[in-house]
Amino acid sequence: MQAFTFHNPTRIHFGEGQIARISGEIPAGSRVLLTFGGGSIHANGVYQQIRDALADCTVIEFGGIESNPEFETLLRAVELGRAEQVDWVLAAGGGSVIDGSKFIAAGIALDPAIDPWLIVGNRTPLQRALPLGVVLTLPATGSESNNAAVVTRRATQDKLSFKNALVFPCFAVLDPAVTRSLPKRQVANGIVDAFVHTTEQYLTVPNAAAIQDRLAEGILATLIENGPKTLNDPANPDARANLVWSANQALFGLVGAGQVTDWATHAIGHELTALYGIDHARTLALVLPSLLRHRLDDKTAKLAQYGRRVWSLTGSDRAVAMSAINATAAFFEHLEVPTRLSAYKLDADEVASAVREQLIRHQRLQLGEGGTLTPDDCARILTAAA
Ligand code: NZQ
Ligand code: ZN
Q1: What gap in Å lies between CA 372 and CA 383, rounded to an integer?
Q2: From CA 61, how far away is CA 34, in angstroms rounded?
Q3: CB 339 within 8 A of CB 333
Q4: Which residues lie across from 62 on neighbouring strands?
Q5: Which of 77, 143, 178, 295 is most buried (most C-beta within 10 Å)?
Q6: Closest Cα to atom 20, ligand 1: which residue?
Q7: Which atom of ligand 1 is nearest to the CA of 197?
Q8: Are 146 and 168 in contact (CB under 8 A)?
């Protein structure tokens, strides 16, 4: 196991009715910037629960944060927050609203002489960020209790991330009941995203991190069991609750602590979203099976462990490893999340070449554990996902 420091300061309130806890988290009299997306929180009752909990605060609303949140939109929220002199940001939504709100919380507190775009890519040090609270409505990204955010600049086709301890949410409310209103497509996306967060930190090389391995295997098995259950039986509260907790734990920090991590599937996936607008999780399903096949020799040992422990496969290491990749792809397809570019009517050679250019432009030149995956390799991975 590698050396590591584990610190996650986000307080989690899990379970039905927990939105009311916000009143104990944000002091009465605060000026709160309430951020949200395209309106789902109005349709499913989340908005009213939040307003009730914030009855003793002044609330300034900023809606319209889009999926894959855009810099220009977030900048308007920063301007509003500065003008209104807010002292808290409360994000209500999925990964896009939460990520966007991390940028907003940092942007409002940034020296006005500094270009906020420099926050993205960690190109300016942050001295401070406004305290951030989260009401999660879509189990997927784990953004509700981590320090990462991804921001898009559509005009230049840049989808880039930043990480900073200052943007860890102070608290996150995870009420599985509010995910009942999600369309099936978003539930399926969330299952795949959480699955791939786990594999990115687990399917690398043997590392004698026994707890982290078992945790990863537990999350994967829970997603395989509870993902389809949630899709087929939306009223099943236990399946839904376990899905929310799986997605949270996948990127809470423990799975990857002391592990050798990969993250190449995400790096390639971000370029696919920037170029073609494909949903984040859907890009991961396109990349992961093909990437694992491309790197089978490097990853045989962990793939075989995964195949035996998660899919109960038997046979030689290599045979189990290959079957485990096929089982993963079949699982995604079963969720109706395609693993082939043809499902999007995209020409694989063209996609491969465009992504290769983007990776070079974004200096994503040595990806994967060990840094051995080049833009040329990534192009081959995409060609093979035709
Ligand atoms: O905008 P609203 O109206 O809220 O609708 C959203 C949106 O259309 C809808 N939705 C959310 N909760 C709902 C609901 N609809 C009905 N009922 C509910 N309860 O779902 C749609 C998708 O939402 P979005 O937030 O875009 O999805 P997701 O949570 O998958 O977030 C994706 C973003 O997170 C980033 C991705 O790159 C992408 O930009 N990620 C962030 C990470 C992090 N911070 O750690 C890690 C991830 O790997 C990922 O990169
Ligand atoms: Zn992801």
Answers
A1: 19
A2: 5
A3: yes
A4: 35
A5: 143
A6: 186
A7: 48
A8: yes
Q: Which atom of ligand 1 is nearest to the CA of 273?
A: 37
Ligand 2 mean position, distance from CA 190 (Å): 9
Runs of H (alpha helix) within the chain? 22-25, 40-43, 46-53, 71-83, 95-109, 184-202, 210-232, 237-250, 264-276, 280-294, 296-311, 317-334, 348-361, 375-383
Please tell me the number of the ligand nearest to residue 248's CA.
Answer: 1
CB half-sphere exposure, 50, CA atoms < 13 A = 29
Mutational test site, ligand 1, from 138, 265, 268, 287, max ligand atoms within 8 Å of CB: 138
The alpha carbons of the chain give a radius of gyration, in whole angstroms, of: 20
Overall average pLDDT of the 263-281 stretch: 98
Does the reported pTM lie above 0.85? yes
Max CA distance (Å), the chain: 64
CA atoms of 35 and 255, how far apart (whole Å): 29
Percent of the chain with pLDDT over 70: 100
Q: How far is the CA of 355 from the centre of ligand 2 (A)?
A: 18
Q: pLDDT digits over 158-172, tens only?
A: 999 999 999 999 999
Positive/negative CA dihedral, 36, 42, 45, 49? positive
Structure tokens at 341: 């570019």
Ligand 2 centroid to Cα of residue 96, in Å, is 11
| Pairwise CA distance, residues 268 & 266, whole Å | 5
Q: Find the residues whose C-beta lies inside 6 A of ligand 1.
A: 37-40, 44, 67-68, 93-97, 99, 137-138, 140-143, 146, 148-150, 178-179, 181-182, 186, 189, 193, 251, 266, 280
By most ligand atoms within 8 Å of CB, the mutation choice from 44, 67, 158, 337 for ligand 1 is 67
- Close Cβ partners of 77 (under 8 Å, ≥ 6 residues apart): 33, 35, 62, 65, 100, 104, 107
Q: How far is the CA of 312 from the centre of ligand 1 (A)?
A: 32
Domains in the chain, CATH or no CATH each = 11-178 (3.40.50.1970), 184-383 (1.20.1090.10)
Q: What crossing angle do the helices spanning 237-250 and 210-232 adopt, rounded to 10°?
A: 140
- Mind listing the pLDDT tens digit for each residue in 5-32? 999 999 999 999 999 999 999 999 999 9
Place of tokens 């369309």: 183
